[in-house]
């Protein structure tokens, strides 16, 4: 199921970018470039959603389908 989530790309002092999501704090990934960081988002999102499902928790209201 596709989700639309807001993403925050934060440049790191040592290089690369960290990606977080304000409505889904469990989504956390990184990459050496913006493109790599963005490419890592689907796996991080899937892992966060799976965590909610395993714990029988509702997804945060800010997620858009």
Keywords for this structure?
65 residues; 1 helix; alpha+beta; 3-stranded antiparallel β-sheet
What topology emerges from the helices and strands here?
Layout: E1 8-11, E2 17-20, E3 28-31, H1 34-54
Antiparallel strand pairs: 1-2, 2-3
Brief write-up:
With 65 residues, this protein is an alpha+beta fold. Helix content is 32%, strand content 18%.
Number of helices: 1
What is the element string, with H for helices and E for strands?
EEEH
**Largest beta-sheet details:** 3 strands, antiparallel
Average per-residue pLDDT, rounded, comes to 92
Strand % is 15-25%
Describe this structure in words.
The chain has 65 residues and is of the alpha+beta class. The protein contains one helix and three strands, in the order βββα. It has one helix at residues 34-54; strands at residues 8-11, 17-20, 28-31. It has a three-stranded antiparallel sheet with strand order 1-2-3, covered by helices on one side. A hairpin with a 5-residue loop joins strand 1 (8-11) and strand 2. The radius of gyration is 12 Å and the shape is elongated. The model has no long low-confidence stretch (mean pLDDT 92).
């Amino acid at each position: 199921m596709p989700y639309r989530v807001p993403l925050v790309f934060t440049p790191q002092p040592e290089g690369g970018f960290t990606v977080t999501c304000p409505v889904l704090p469990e989504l956390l990934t990184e990459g050496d470039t913006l493109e790599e960081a963005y490419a890592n988002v689907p796996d991080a999102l899937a892992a966060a959603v799976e965590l909610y499902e395993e714990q029988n928790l509702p997804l945060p209201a800010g997620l858009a389908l």
